[in-house]
Design goal:
Strand content: under 5%
Number of domains: 1
Largest sheet: none
Order of helices and strands: HHHHHHH
CATH topology: Globin-like
Length: about 180
């Protein structure tokens, strides 16, 4: 049996393991919620992880439907870029796929462990990691730009308020003003 045949046959087991590895990066409570709540509107994070990992698995591992890979990768990377993860934690999900595949393949002693097949698989995962890194950097740059713009707007608003309160309104030249003094 080839590695690809095993990965096709055991698709749901590998996906479940991979998702479990991804969810380990969250708190236990959050991971339970993401794993258990099936309503995509009540659990958008869990839904995004489940959907993206399935598309990536089919496209990268099984080499089917590669046209969906960029969108799935982008959704997962953007999700993790806005969360409180370091870059390595945010992108670890790519390498966790290698781990899930190796663990599943190890359960099949009859697998034909050809280096060429494993090398092709790992090369596709590495390419996915590079693309994920580029997307992560773009996402973090965009977040920085948004935060910087918001900070600029807040400072400008604060300066307008401070400027308006500390400067008395100028009276026209030659007016009597309110002090009762005249010319």
């Amino acid at each position: 049996m080839t590695l690809l045949e095993i990965l096709e046959q055991d698709r749901s087991a590998v996906l479940e393991r991979w998702r479990g590895l991804v969810l380990e990066s969250y708190s236990e409570e959050a991971a339970c919620f993401f794993r258990g709540e099936k309503d995509r509107f009540q659990n958008p994070v869990g839904h995004s992880i489940a959907r993206a990992t399935a598309v990536l698995y089919d496209g990268v591992v099984l080499d089917r439907q590669p046209e969906g890979i960029p969108e799935a990768l982008e959704s997962l990377v953007r999700l993790r870029a806005v969360q409180d993860f370091t870059a390595s934690q945010a992108l670890a999900f790519v390498f966790q796929l290698k781990r899930a595949v190796r663990e599943q393949a190890a359960q099949h002693p009859d697998v034909d462990r050809r280096w060429e097949e494993l090398s092709r698989f790992e090369t596709r995962i590495d390419a996915l990691a590079f693309a994920a890194f580029d997307l992560y950097v773009e996402s973090r740059e965009r977040i920085f730009e948004i935060r910087q713009g918001e900070l600029k707007r807040r400072i400008a608003s604060l300066l307008r308020r401070l400027g308006g309160e500390s400067e008395p309104e100028a009276e026209p030249i030659g007016s009597l003003g309110t002090g009762g003094r005249g010319a």
